[in-house]
């Protein structure tokens, strides 16, 4: 079966213990849960990135705020950008609020509305 390397997201056979592209040992990844989730935002599939944004918001992973802001501004998929905006709204962090206020005044209507809805009153 096909799987993705937990470090570089290269497609690999799920029976392989070490990624042929980056050498990461798939069985002994010692990163914390939060570190793995933030790294997962580099996943090649937009649906996966959007789902990961949601998961980060649900778990209020503050360490992901800078990366979510980058994604909200520059991910090639508009729905991933929207998911990042919504995740930022779910995380109680002053950086998120400032960023969302700025996004709510942006030119992209979908993102501006999402940012407005995500702002806490």
TrEMBL record:
Name of the molecule in the record: HEAT repeat domain-containing protein
Source superkingdom: Bacteria
Family annotation (InterPro entries): ARM-like, ARM-type_fold
SUPFAM superfamilies given in the database record: ARM repeat
Native organism: Acidicapsa dinghuensis
């Amino acid at each position: 079966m096909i799987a993705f390397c937990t470090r570089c997201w290269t497609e690999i056979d799920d029976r392989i213990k070490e990624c042929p592209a980056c050498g990461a040992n798939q069985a002994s990844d010692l990163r914390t849960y939060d570190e793995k989730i933030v790294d997962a935002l580099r996943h090649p599939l937009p649906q996966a990135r959007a789902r990961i944004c949601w998961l980060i918001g649900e778990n209020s992973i503050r360490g992901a705020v800078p990366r979510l802001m980058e994604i909200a501004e520059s991910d090639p998929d508009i729905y991933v950008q929207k998911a990042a905006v919504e995740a930022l709204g779910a995380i109680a962090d002053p950086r998120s609020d400032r960023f969302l206020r700025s996004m709510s005044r942006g030119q992209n209507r979908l993102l501006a509305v999402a940012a407005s809805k995500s702002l806490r009153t």
